Amino acid sequence: MAFWDSLWQSRSAQFDMGVGANSIALTRRRPSVSLTKQGAATGHLRVNLSWRMRASDFGGKSRQSGQLLRHPFKLFKPEVVQAHTQGMVNVDLDLGCLYELADGSKGVVQPLGDFLGSANEPPYVRLSGDDRFGSGTGETIYVNLDHHAEIKRLLFFVYIYDQTPAFDRTHALVTLYPSSGPRVEIELDEQAPQARSCAVFSLENVKGELVVRREVKFVYGFQAELDRLYGWGLQWGRGYKTRA
């Protein structure tokens, strides 16, 4: 094997594993991981959504790069995020989960409509709460994998509630914390300015093996469009959040 091939494979492995040795980054090149094979098919799986606002692409990346070259200390300053109207962008991202159990029952766990689910009884999926401001803790869903034999498939998704579509203005990260082994990270890093929802990853029970697969598919509608895309077959209606 050539030296450069060896170096490239080494760097690629570091990229896939993420910044730290205790994380795995699911990418297009490495889209799936088995929780069963890493001994994490039991206990509680914690799925966290966190996000922060990032600078608009107006003006182009080349201009931003030039400014950083002239003023390198700007790299350490917080970015100011502006919308088309030069106002501050405020995006409320929500984390949800479509579920299908082994007995055929289907449904959704999400903040909208207060469908919070349950960890100790069907669907064995529980939403901890609704973060409307992108705080450090974000939003978290727990999956009780002690009942993984009763779970057929789960689809975790993120949507923008009742705001101007702005996935391209946010840096969103979904992190899975299994009961053992490294955490799994999935970035919503593709440009989809007008999208309102994104299917982030699926968790399927494939002949007793729990497999996490990166999806990162943006759609321009809401849950009903994700439903059609993945063939869930639920009936959807307009929902509203209670005021904070």
UniProtKB/TrEMBL annotation:
InterPro entries: TerD
Gene3D superfamilies: sav2460 like domains
Stated name of the protein: Tellurium resistance
Lineage: Bacteria, Bacillati, Actinomycetota, Actinomycetes, Kitasatosporales
